[in-house]
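Blackboard transcription, Thursday session:
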Amino acid sequence: MVYDLRNHQVPTPLTVGGMVGAGLYALFNGLWAPVLLMIALTHVSDFNPREKRLAFALTLSVFSAIFQPSAALICLLILVVWVLWEFGVLGGADVKLIITAALVLGNPIFLIPITVVGGVQGVIASLQKKREIPFVVSIFCGTLLFVLYPYF
Amino acid sequence: MRFLNDNRGIESTEVALIIAVVVLVAYGAYRLLGQNIAAIVTDIAGKI
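(Written on the board underneath:)
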């Protein structure tokens, strides 16, 4: 979060390391389809042209959801954030952190507090006439809200 | 590895606002209509 606030970038080893750790944790918890989908989409991102990338991503996501229906929502979440990255809406670090949180928490509902915090951040940035926001702040605060909410 | 090497942590302000509004509206609709929709789907499934 500090890196993102300072220069709108997060060092790759931090995000990739988190994603690998989350992948191992998810495998341990039986969420194998989203982990395989995550690995596959990492490779699909190098395909050309874009239509081929999107077709492969959609097909792989559908197969992941079919093979492990209990993880279908997480597969859908991974596909959606990957497509948002593909179209340049989200930064790569944001997407990797969201996938990491999804694999650790195993519940896509955590996206709701993230988007709400993102909206609040967006309103503040609009008032300050800024065009872009460091979204890692929203991901961190939203995930923290989701994790701590049951304790209140 | 284009995806792994992308370390940008930014999002445009407009998109953040749009996504927040869409998610809140969808969640509100689900809370309001979720049970009715489930009943309709169950009814249709029963008829099939």
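Lecturer's comment: The helical segments of chain A are 2-7, 12-28, 32-44, 50-67, 72-86, 92-105, 111-127, 135-148.
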